[in-house]
Input
Amino acid sequence: MEINKDTKVRLNNGVKMPLLGFGTSRTKGETERIVLQALKAGYRQFDTATRYENEEEVGNAIKKSGIPREEIFITTKIGSMEGEHDYPEKAFNDSLKRLQLGYIDLYLIHWPISGRLEVWEFLEKKLEEGKVKAIGVGNFTIRHLKELLEIAKVTPVLNQVEFNPFLYQKELLEFCKEKKIHLEGYCPLTRGHKLDDPRLIEMSKKYKKSPAQLLIRWALQHDVISIPKSQSEVRMKENLEVFDFEISEEDMSTMNSWDENFRVTSDPEEIP
Ligand SMILES: NC(=O)c1ccc[n+]([C@@H]2O[C@H](COP(=O)([O-])OP(=O)(O)OC[C@H]3O[C@@H](n4cnc5c(N)ncnc54)[C@H](OP(=O)(O)O)[C@@H]3O)[C@@H](O)[C@H]2O)c1
Output
């Protein structure tokens, strides 16, 4: 299938989500500026979280942009703040208030909370109330997903996990496909750690693209939703220029073989 900057994936509940989006973690204080620039550059899908402490800035940018709400897709996430007063209801209401939105497009459990599956039931309730258009999870392994699917009335639309050629989670990708759960890949650029890998540089030269563009394109060709983050206007534009070339099947296989279980964030299996 041919893809372009406006390509949307159809999630398992029929909701459509832009295949390429924009990450906002670790941008607190600058988020409003960069989301406004990203909107201007053409991004329409944004990833935030309670934990990023920037939901209000994302909301300000959406308001200031003047772009109709329904043209923008917003994901936010609930953290594991069990001890907090009136959790999870308050956590959700606070997110909505900070984002200054009437609804959230996609609401995720940020990290698996073992034995706390009632948080999923809470998300299902928000979906039923129409406060969110889709619900999903983050950092779930196959084990976590199996546990969830046993009690879930609603199948998560997606699982947001760390995913790039250096952490090619093939088994998880296949399991999710089988269960009709889309994969969304975070740290598509390995947070910069692997951009100078000689094999990647060599491959990018072949396609006359940058290493970052090659990594994003690799994810998209796996039908994985990608959310690169950049605070630079030049680089956020560069990261959108990934639709004028295609990585050959052979080179996709080569890139798949770079997997070395490299992680920028924690291994969800090692979280207590
Ligand atoms: N669910 C979760 O637990 C979870 C965990 C981590 C991340 N995420 C989400 O995924 C998003 C993306 O992940 P990430 O921000 O950790 O890492 P990333 O997108 O893999 O990498 C971002 C880094 O790459 C640099 N960069 C961006 N474009 C570039 C380009 N064209 N050339 C060279 N360098 C470039 C950025 O620097 P500049 O900003 O200076 O351009 C930044 O240092 C996050 O923002 C967040 O929304 C979710």
